Amino acid sequence: MPKIAIVTDSTSYLNPEELRQWSIHEIPLNVVVNEETMPETDWDVATYYQAMRNSETLPTTSQPSPGKMEDLYRELAWEADEIISIHLSSGISGTHQTAVAVADDIKDTVRVHCYDSEISARAQGYFVLTAARMASEGYDMAAIFAKLDKIKETMRAYFIVEDLRHLQRGGRLSGAQAMVGSMLRIKPVLEFTDKKIIPYEKVRTSKKALARIQSLFLEEAAKGPLEASVLHANAEETGEAFRRQLQEASPESRISLEHLGPVIGTHLGENAIGLAWYRPETLSE
């Protein structure tokens, strides 16, 4: 049975226990604060958001270097026959494209199969954990990729941000959309569509925006239990209150609270709240 190694980037925000339990290998993206570049995994999350507040200019982010990615793949080639490398959406980062290029360069050393999650944060993590679990149970590459594509069919993610300027400055939202939203004090509900973050619906207040996301979630949960995560950018109290509210409304669903780390937090801004979900099935389905 061929041994398959699992690689992801740091924006899946898996916790150390999950990485260790499933032997997942993580390559970090970077944040640049006051002209200093650091892997996002070197930051304590709360400390990062404080640094972001105090920074004279909005921090920026950068993908892993091809060299570091190649080093990891070559290291894994000593213990694995094949590698699955799962990354954040190619619509918001070049990380996936870099992985594809590096995989082609070293194809004579090891076969690396790159998968574009078309999303990020814990939603990306769902793909990674599924692939790792299936690899550990002996599923082959075709079965794993078929399952990931099945998950993608029901995967949804919605976000509410405090300030659209973060997305606009980072090139993830158009300037006109940011300007109109700020002028009218709109709290738009944003979603991942076609690999990018776009406005889904305009709402006047954060309370109404959360209610709208909840209604979208419950509409899907009515068709069957969901695996879901409330995502927060240094807004744990708000996130936990929303999680409890959703859990009470859909007791059959499994809903966790997860953080948005420095890279995604840089683009969504502090106090952003998100909700991601998919409909779980057994591995054999």
Explained architecture:
The protein folds into 2 domains: 115 residues, Rossmann fold (3-Layer(aba) Sandwich), CATH 3.40.50.10440; 124 residues, Hypothetical Protein Tm841, Chain: A,domain 3 (2-Layer Sandwich). The chain is 42% helix and 24% strand. A hairpin with a 2-residue loop joins strand 3 and strand 4. The two termini are 21 Å apart. The mean pLDDT is 90.
Most strands sheet: 6 strands, mixed
Please, how many helices? Answer: 11
User: What does the oligomeric state look like here?
Assistant: single chain
For the biggest β-sheet, the strand order reads: 10-9-8-13-11-12
- Segments where pLDDT lies below 50 for 5+ residues? none
Structural class call reads: alpha/beta
Count of spatially separate domains: 2
Query: So what's the overall shape?
Result: globular
Our Rg estimate from Cα atoms comes to 19 Å
The CATH topology annotation of the largest domain reads as: Hypothetical Protein Tm841, Chain: A,domain 3
Q: Tell me what portion of residues adopts beta-strand conformation.
A: 15-25%
Q: How many β-strand runs?
A: 13
Mean pLDDT across all residues, rounded? 90
What's the level 1 CATH class of the largest domain?
Alpha Beta
CATH-scheme architecture of the largest domain:
2-Layer Sandwich
| H/E series | EHEEEHEHEHEHHEHHEEHEHEHE
Helix content: 40-55%
N→C terminal distance: 21 Å
